[in-house]
Write a structure and sequence with these properties.
Shape: globular
Structural class: alpha+beta
Oligomer: single chain
Number of domains: 1
Helix content: 25-40%
CATH superfamily: Glutaredoxin
Largest sheet: 5 strands, mixed
Distance between the termini: 61 Å
Length: 215
């Protein structure tokens, strides 16, 4: 009898551990703050594991800059369904999550956190941009049940990343940043991770959006 009970307990543990990472209880709602939130200062350096990356610090995005659009590739599972989407066709306020790769723990975690947070802002586009292949994006979206976040690839020439100084040349990957733009693609809030392997302060970004976005 004890043997059967142990087997049942083990099965329940395994099933519990296999639940979707993005179910309703995976992330708590980001707490509302009464503190006035403003865009963080531009970092004096950007590093990967303590080593400076090749990037023009003078050209990093700042508040009131206008994002330079280009074509992006949405998730797809086949070559014949790979269709570019012009960034400028995406209308309205946008939360733009720039990441090196969804196949890394920090990028995956924070993308899922933003997907969860996006349900609070029905008229704001939440999007993630990386140099991942569109096929990898499709696997990520399917495996994590991403519903509110648009996920895009800039692997074809890295034009969006290069045009907006979000590209790490020595890695051929995006750096890590979160950018909030208005309906005119003017930057209202931007945070670059000074250490690319570390998390961004998503709570600050979401609270900025709460305080400043008007339908």
């Amino acid at each position: 009898m004890k043997k059967y009970l142990m087997i049942i307990v083990m099965i329940m543990f395994i099933l519990g551990g296999c639940q979707s990472k993005n179910d309703d209880n995976s992330f708590s709602k980001i707490a509302i703050t009464n503190e006035t939130i403003s865009s963080p200062k531009t970092p004096s350096s950007i590093m990967v594991n303590g080593k400076a990356i090749v990037i023009d610090l003078d050209k990093l995005l700042k508040v009131d800059d206008v994002i330079k659009g280009s074509e992006l590739i949405p998730p797809t599972g086949t070559f014949d369904t790979m269709k570019p989407v012009p960034f400028n066709d995406l209308k309205g306020w946008k939360v733009i999550h720039i990441i090196p790769s969804l196949d890394t723990p920090v990028c995956s975690l924070q993308t899922r956190q933003l997907d969860y947070a996006s349900s609070e802002f029905k008229d704001v586009i939440f999007m993630s941009i990386s140099a991942d292949l569109p096929f990898a994006l499709q696997h990520f979206v399917d495996d994590n049940k991403i519903m509110g976040m648009k996920v895009y690839s800039d692997y074809q020439g890295y034009q969006f990343l290069k045009n907006n100084e979000l590209f790490m040349k020595q890695y051929s990957l995006a750096t890590r940043a979160i950018i909030i733009v208005d309906e005119n693609n003017k930057v209202k809030y931007v945070e670059y991770a000074s250490e690319v392997t570390k998390e961004l302060d998503l709570a600050q970004a979401i609270n900025y959006l709460r305080q400043n976005y008007q339908k």
